[in-house]
Amino acid sequence: MSATETATDSMQTPASFNDFGLHPDILKAISLSGYTKPTPIQAQAIGPVIDGRDVMGAAQTGTGKTAAFTLPVLHRMMPFASHSTSPARHPVRALILTPTRELADQVADNVKRYSDSSPLRAEVVFGGVDIAPQRDALRRGCEVLIATPGRLLDHIEQKNVNLSQVNVLVLDEADRMLDMGFMPDLERILSYLPKQRQSLLFSATFSPEIRKLARTFLKDPVEISVAANNATASTVTQVAYKIPEDKRKAALIYLLKSQDLAQVIVFSNTKIAASRIARELAKEGITAESIHGDKSQMERTRTLESFKAGEVRVLVATDVAARGLDVAGLDGVINIDLPYNAEDYVHRIGRTGRAGASGHAIAFYSDKNENLLHDIEKLIKAPIPKDELVIPEEFLQRYLPSSSRERQARHGRDDRNHRHDKHDRHSRHDRHDSFAKHYPAAKPAPIDEFFYRPYDAAKDTATPAPQEAKREWTPTTGQGEMLAVLLGGRPKNKNS
Ligand code: AMP
After folding, report:
1. Ligand 1 and 67: CB distance under 6 A
2. SS3 at position 386
């Protein structure tokens, strides 16, 4: 067989989870999760993984890729499932490496859910939290270990874990790991694993670097690609507003107060700005929290949990912290800054419009960074519709930075400005009251229960989006056909 083969070339894609021959405990977990039909990545990956093949998969979060590798890996672990309490009966047999703590946690949740009916044990280890409880858990033994590379090496050094019996290795978001400079860590971890093993690599893109990595550690892999490179989901409505930098805060607050956006992620390019924006929104009565690399792991986990629970309306995030996040029912993404790396735009807006639901992607740009918008359009090979956002005067007056307000006051006061000068003579308290009456902190719109139900492929195909031909999740046997939705790239900064 050639170095790689494409799964769709040789496989009949199963229409049902029953066709894979998965262990009954796993089928039960699938049914409890409410999944009725494999997503395309699952349809193509599960069979080869069960057969013990190495797999190289191009798929992003949102395509069902976690279950695509988790379900067959757990199936392969089933013969080793033991009720014994002896740690010796629970060696690490499957190692899943992820670039970020959030993703590790999310993958671990999936693994635990799918293995709930079996005695298989799963543990997760990542940095930024106390190492002692992780050490104790590792010493008790687990068949499936999910880890970020740095913390895993700490445990290896402390001899808390032995990887000599690992027979399946998964590299999740491998492109991201390379970007974050984890290659030396990966090489060290690989040196502790048996040479004879099954290896799976998942990445948003098959860049030359990823192909090089694949050549070094995959053997004769089945290559699966379910996404068109750098495509954006057809379920996401995009719009770009030209907003001068000093009006971005007013624009953001106006959008949040006037639009029916129940939950959104606001993307900022810097950690400092993310924290500041969250504070400013909170002052306006909009529940908001920031998530970025300067926050402790505990804070990040807590923030994410409250966001996922719908207690927080706006999550202000930097790219690294939000990568790979799976938040059900996210209405929109607002790029208050355009990303410097065009591929990040695709990742950012991929947080919304997931699993067939619709979403809004709003971007602010200005004369100063219009070139970034062009880079994005070049990458996604489509223009982003531009529109004018008319920000009511009272928002401008209220949220314009004081330096801009003074500048505006110095240059040409028209009647309208005079009116506002008069208005300014009111006490701040009065102004706040009248403003609040007109623009009360928008209550989060009730979240449609639909979004909390697991994605149902059958329902999705039955109700296509009214305007755009919604991509279907229906597996296909069509040769080389690109099936799924999102792909993209590489934020450069490990710490952002
Ligand atoms: P992932 O790409 O792994 O982050 O998964 C995205 C979302 O799709 C998660 O919330 C999964 O629970 C959900 N999901 C995964 N597989 C299926 C399926 N076959 N049917 C419906 N939902 C799924």
Report:
1. yes
2. strand
Residue whose CA is at the smallest distance from ligand 1 atom 19: 38
Taken as a whole, the chain contains a residue count of 496
Alpha carbons 270 and 338: distance in angstroms, whole number: 11
What local confidence, expressed as pLDDT, does residue 232 receive? 58
More confident residue, 64 or 133: 133
Taking the CA atoms of 354, 231, 103 and 322 in sequence, report the sign of the dihedral they define: negative
What's the rounded Cα separation, in Å, for the pair 437 and 46? 55
- Nearest Cα neighbor of 170 from 275, 88, 250, 92 is 92
| Phi, psi for 104 (deg, rounded to 5) | -55, -45
pTM of the model as a whole:
0.61
- Shortest-distance Cα residue to atom 8 of ligand 1: 64
Going by alpha carbons, the residue nearest to atom 21 of ligand 1 is 455
Instruction: Say if ligand 1 is within 6 A of residue 233 CB.
Output: no
Token duo for residue 10: 């040789």
Atom of ligand 1 nearest to the CA of 324: 4
Specify the 3-state DSSP secondary structure of 458.
helix
Residue whose CA is at the smallest distance from ligand 1 atom 20 = 35
Average pLDDT over residues 160-186: 92
Q: Is the CB of 383 under 6 A from ligand 1?
A: no
Q: Quick check: 362 and 349 in contact, CB under 8 A?
A: no
Do the Cβ atoms of 122 and 142 come closer than 8 Å? yes
Q: What is the pLDDT of residue 139?
A: 96
Whose CA is closest to 146, among 202, 199, 93?
Answer: 93
Helix pair 370-380, 342-349: axis angle to 10 deg: 70
- Determine if ligand 1 sits within 6 Å of the CB of residue 329: no
Tell me if 459 CB under 6 Å of ligand 1: no
Bridge partners (DSSP) listed for residue 145:
95, 123
pLDDT above 70: percentage of residues in the chain:
74
How many Cα atoms sit within 13 Å of 103 on the Cβ side?
24
Atom of ligand 1 nearest to the CA of 33: 12
Mean pLDDT, rounded, for 59-84: 91
Return the ligand 1 atom nearest residue 62 CA.
2
CA of 336 to the centre of ligand 1 (A): 28
Task: Give alpha helix (H) positions in 141-283.
Answer: 149-157, 174-179, 183-191, 208-217, 248-258, 271-283
> Residues 27-52: pLDDT tens digits?
999 999 989 889 889 999 999 999 99
